[in-house]
């Protein structure tokens, strides 16, 4: 029996968020596109089923003279995930989530992000913990953007967050997964979905996140700021699928020296 058959393979569990099972493990944002038409086409090409948007920057019909996101992204087709981008305090984040609930007729699924400062957009974890606790107490289903600290990630899960979303690198940086060891620790300790949020720059970054065992990846800039966003959206869809299959297949062990693909044992000469 070969080494690969002796190792146990990861369990192929579906992605379930807030009681709903999703086929796509790619979540996408709606900002930084040239126009609403491009937004809609890119999201369709990505195959994503969950679409996130910044409540403070997005027109959902409250401004009738401006294009509405709902004209390009139908709530009947996609799960809408309002987020608190641009919030720097727990108070602002909580207020923004409550506004989203009003605009979306009682919608309780939100992505919480509380930022520390404008230069890095790194999460302010002190304020994030405060906001998460209040939102959960108020009946929100919280998916939370957080640092790559495994202990804080576990704390957020224990509080009742339904998904943990550690950054791979600073928001919009395109640097790729800079902290694979910490991401792996978070995945191993989690009993809720773990989704890399922020830092992805190209398809190989998304594949790596999935090979680390993440349940999904959320991205925006990597698609929207590509020279061809529609083609990049398709590439990201395929990258997520490929990385997930590679994770489930179980990679070969790394070795210090070579091992021939066609061994000479048992040959006739």
- In whole angstroms, the N-to-C terminal distance is 25 Å
Order of helices and strands: HEEEHEHEHEHEHEHEHEHH
Largest β-sheet summary: 5 strands, parallel
Helix count from the secondary structure assignment: 10
Strand order of the largest sheet: 5-4-3-10-9
Low-confidence stretches: none
Helix/strand-derived category reads alpha/beta
Helix content: 25-40%
Number of strands: 10
Could you tell me the mean pLDDT?
91
Q: What is the overall silhouette?
A: globular
Strand content is 15-25%
Report the oligomer.
Answer: single chain
* Rg, nearest Å: 20 Å
Q: How would you summarize the topology of this molecule?
A:
Blueprint: H1 3-6, E1 15-17, E2 20-22, E3 26-29, H2 36-46, E4 50-54, H3 69-72, E5 79-83, H4 90-103, E6 109-112, H5 125-137, E7 141-146, H6 150-159, E8 163-166, H7 180-189, E9 195-197, H8 203-211, E10 216-219, H9 221-224, H10 229-249
Parallel strand pairs: 3-4, 3-10, 4-5, 6-7, 7-8, 9-10
Antiparallel strand pairs: 1-2
Helix pairs in contact: 2-10, 4-5, 6-7, 8-10
């Amino acid at each position: 029996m070969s080494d690969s058959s002796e190792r146990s393979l990861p369990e192929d569990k579906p992605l379930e968020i807030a009681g709903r099972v999703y086929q796509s493990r790619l979540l996408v944002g709606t900002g930084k596109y040239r126009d609403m038409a491009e937004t809609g086409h890119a999201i369709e090409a990505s195959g994503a089923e969950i679409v996130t948007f910044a409540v403070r920057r997005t027109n959902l019909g409250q401004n009738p003279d401006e294009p509405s996101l709902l004209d390009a992204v139908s709530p009947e087709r996609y799960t809408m995930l309002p987020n608190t981008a641009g919030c720097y305090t727990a108070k602002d984040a909580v207020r923004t989530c409550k506004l989203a609930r009003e605009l979306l007729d009682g919608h309780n699924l939100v992505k919480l992000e509380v930022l520390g400062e404008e230069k890095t957009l790194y999460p302010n974890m002190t304020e994030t913990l405060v906001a998460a606790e209040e939102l959960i107490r108020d009946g929100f289903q919280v998916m939370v953007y957080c640092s790559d600290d495994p202990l804080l990630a576990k704390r957020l899960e224990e509080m009742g967050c339904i998904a943990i979303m550690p950054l791979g690198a600073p928001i919009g940086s395109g640097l790729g997964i800079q902290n694979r060891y910490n991401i792996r620790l978070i995945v191993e300790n989690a009993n809720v979905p773990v989704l890399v949020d922020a830092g992805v720059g190209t398809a190989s970054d998304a594949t790596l996140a999935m090979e680390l065992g993440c349940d999904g990846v959320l991205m925006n800039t990597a698609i929207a700021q590509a020279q061809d966003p529609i083609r990049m959206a398709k590439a990201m869809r395929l990258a997520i699928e490929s990385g997930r299959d590679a994770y489930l297949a179980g990679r070969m062990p790394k070795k210090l020296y070579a091992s021939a693909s066609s061994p000479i044992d048992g040959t006739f000469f």
